[in-house]
C-alpha cells in the first residue's frame, strides 16, 4: 500500500476521530473509506474497530484527564458493557442481524426528535430517573450487546439514555459514552484479530489520525459544552438515520 494512500487514510482517521469524539458517528466516515480501497466487508469492519479504538481511547483519556468523568462513576458500566459486547460479538456469528438493521433507523429517529424538541436537554443536570448501578447494569448489557452484535448508532443511544435517565449534562454524557464505546470496541477488536480480519498498516495509519482528531474534538466538547455538542449530535444522528435507511431500503 502506497505512502500517499496511507497519508490520505490518516486524514480520514483524523476527521472521523474529531466527529466521533464529539457526537459519535465516526464509522460513517471511516468504514466507507475502508470499503472504497477494496477491503472485503469483514476485514473493513475489523480494521475499522482497530482505528476506532485509538479514537475512543484518546477521547476517554481526555475526559478523564480533564476531570469531566471518573472511573469510580463508570466502572460498573464498563464491566457490563464488556460482558454485553462479548455476547453480542459471539451472537452475530450465530444469527442474522437483518431484523436490527430494519428497526434501528426508527429508534434513532425517536432519539433525534426527542433531542430536537427538548430544547434544554443536556444544558443542565436533572434529577435521575434511574439509580446509576441499575442504569449501568441494564444499558451496559443492552448497548454492549448491540455494539458487539451490530453497532451503528451505539454512541447516540448511550448519550440519549444518559441524558434521559441519569439526568446528566451533555458534556458528561458524551464523556461516559466514550468510555463505553472504548470498552465494547476492545472486545470486538480482540475477536476480529483472532479471526485475522485486520489490516494493521491501514488501521494504525488511521488510528494515528484518530488519536489526534479525538483529542481535538473532545477538547472542544469539554470547553464549549452542550451548545457545541448538541447540534453536532443531532447532525450525526440524522446522517446515521439517512445512511441506514438508504442501505436497508434502497432495493425495496
Automatic annotation (TrEMBL):
<feature type="transmembrane region" description="Helical">
    <location>
        <begin position="186"/>
        <end position="208"/>
    </location>
</feature>
<keyword id="KW-1003">Cell membrane</keyword>
<feature type="transmembrane region" description="Helical">
    <location>
        <begin position="74"/>
        <end position="93"/>
    </location>
</feature>
<comment type="similarity">
    <text>Belongs to the 4-toluene sulfonate uptake permease (TSUP) (TC 2.A.102) family.</text>
</comment>
<feature type="transmembrane region" description="Helical">
    <location>
        <begin position="99"/>
        <end position="118"/>
    </location>
</feature>
<dbReference type="InterPro" id="IPR052017">
    <property type="entry name" value="TSUP"/>
</dbReference>
<dbReference type="GO" id="GO:0005886">
    <property type="term" value="C:plasma membrane"/>
</dbReference>
<keyword id="KW-0813">Transport</keyword>
<keyword id="KW-1133">Transmembrane helix</keyword>
<keyword id="KW-0812">Transmembrane</keyword>
<keyword id="KW-0472">Membrane</keyword>
<feature type="transmembrane region" description="Helical">
    <location>
        <begin position="155"/>
        <end position="174"/>
    </location>
</feature>
<dbReference type="Pfam" id="PF01925">
    <property type="entry name" value="TauE"/>
</dbReference>
<feature type="transmembrane region" description="Helical">
    <location>
        <begin position="6"/>
        <end position="35"/>
    </location>
</feature>
<dbReference type="InterPro" id="IPR002781">
    <property type="entry name" value="TM_pro_TauE-like"/>
</dbReference>
<protein>
    <recommendedName>
        <fullName>Probable membrane transporter protein</fullName>
    </recommendedName>
</protein>
<feature type="transmembrane region" description="Helical">
    <location>
        <begin position="228"/>
        <end position="246"/>
    </location>
</feature>
